[in-house]
């Protein structure tokens, strides 16, 4: 009959400790064998893995500490491993659609509709689609063609986070009351209770959190003091945060965030229509490497994935001057800056057209994409000045 220890899968700290001991013994044996010039008789120890268990986390042999607590790090086995090639970044239009033949091949000999997308500070996505008449002969039209604009405000994408945060703040500011000698557990802060017989009022979670010492201490005494305060309060705080109420809220917040993102993406896809479009995104200041934590990037990446699955082509365009030039004039290759007399709208000094400030960039980006599709050039007013040649 085997002992319980034999049938237990090996994981956790004891397994790691055992592995470290075996590894040290092996290293010693290997070193002494090397010194004596004979082959080592031992095999290196096997790293403990609970691969036969169905548990979600597998320890990964690393320990992290901030001076206060130790964390044993683990792999999340349910997190799918993505190969680097699975990440398909959005590329410049000049790379994706280098010439007329490629454009015709990708869009089945049709001139696609072009949509411009300008990411901004207040507006996560300002989109613009220019509707030319059906028999558009690719010549600039005398009058401005009709436009479709779609603005997705940044606050819309953040609203689930904000409302969840407000709810959490409300809970954290509650100070529950207890009767004398009643046990103090984390549930007190999340449950509604009747406080008629209560005699003692407890501090709220916010109060306790603000009383926690900072993690920077300069003397040993300070460190000891901080550690004592932490040890006295942290178990209770942990208990509060691991109550089912807080965990459920976190889960609900995650779902709401995802739903909001899907709604925004679906709105853009509805605007695109069923036919494959070319969707040009300005290469704004938000393109900071692969910073996927940024909401802009997350939104764009998520959108690109879904749009590509429907046959749309998502590309980047250089957004140089797109927010300062009048799109109506740029369409006729007339250089004209827009004046910005009010906060949210601006007016062209040349043609006198009023335009929403957030849509200027999107319309210019749509224009750039359209011009590229037509003859692989860029509207003159939006052209980057030629670099001085290096001699
Ligand atoms: Zn103008």
Automatic annotation (TrEMBL):
It holds the Pfam family Cas12f1-like_TNB. This is Cas12f1-like TNB domain-containing protein. InterPro entries: Cas12f1-like_TNB. It comes from Linnemannia gamsii. The lineage of its organism: Eukaryota, Fungi, Fungi incertae sedis, Mucoromycota, Mortierellomycotina. Keywords: DNA-binding. Residues 299-365 form the Cas12f1-like TNB domain.
């Amino acid at each position: 009959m085997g002992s319980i220890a034999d049938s237990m899968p090996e994981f956790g700290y004891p397994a790691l400790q055992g592995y470290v001991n075996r590894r040290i013994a092996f290293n010693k044996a290997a070193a002494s064998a090397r010194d004596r010039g004979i082959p080592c008789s031992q095999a290196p120890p096997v790293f403990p893995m609970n691969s036969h268990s169905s548990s979600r986390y597998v320890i990964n042999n690393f320990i992290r500490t901030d001076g206060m607590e130790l964390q044993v790090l683990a792999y999340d086995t349910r997190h799918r491993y993505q190969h680097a090639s699975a990440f398909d970044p959005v590329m410049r239009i000049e790379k994706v659609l280098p010439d007329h033949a490629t454009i015709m091949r990708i869009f089945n000999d049709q001139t696609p509709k072009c949509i411009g997308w300008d990411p901004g500070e207040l507006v996560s996505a300002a989109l613009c689609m220019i509707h030319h008449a059906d028999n558009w002969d690719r010549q600039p039209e005398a009058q401005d063609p009709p436009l479709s604009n779609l603005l997705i405000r940044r606050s819309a994408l953040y609203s689930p986070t904000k409302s969840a945060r407000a709810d959490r703040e409300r809970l954290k500011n509650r100070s529950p009351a207890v009767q004398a000698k009643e046990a103090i557990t984390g549930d007190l802060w999340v449950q509604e209770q009747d406080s008629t017989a209560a005699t003692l009022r407890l501090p709220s979670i916010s109060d306790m959190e603000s009383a926690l010492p900072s993690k920077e201490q300069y003397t040993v005494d300070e460190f000891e003091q901080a550690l004592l305060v932490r040890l006295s309060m942290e178990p209770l705080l942990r208990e509060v945060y691991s109550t089912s109420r807080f965990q459920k809220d976190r889960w609900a917040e995650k779902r709401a965030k995802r739903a909001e993102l899907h709604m925004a993406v679906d709105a853009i896809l509805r605007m695109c229509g069923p036919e494959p479009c070319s969707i040009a995104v300005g290469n704004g200041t938000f393109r900071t490497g692969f910073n996927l934590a940024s909401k802009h990037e997350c939104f764009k990446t998520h959108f690109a994935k879904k749009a590509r699955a429907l046959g749309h082509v998502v590309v980047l365009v250089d957004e140089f001057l797109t927010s300062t030039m009048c799109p109506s004039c740029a369409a006729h290759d007339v250089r004209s800056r827009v004046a910005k007399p009010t906060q949210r709208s601006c007016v062209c000094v040349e043609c006198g057209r009023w335009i929403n400030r957030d849509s200027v960039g999107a319309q210019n980006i749509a224009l750039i994409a359209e011009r590229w599709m037509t003859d692989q050039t860029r509207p003159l007013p939006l052209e980057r000045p030629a670099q001085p040649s290096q001699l």
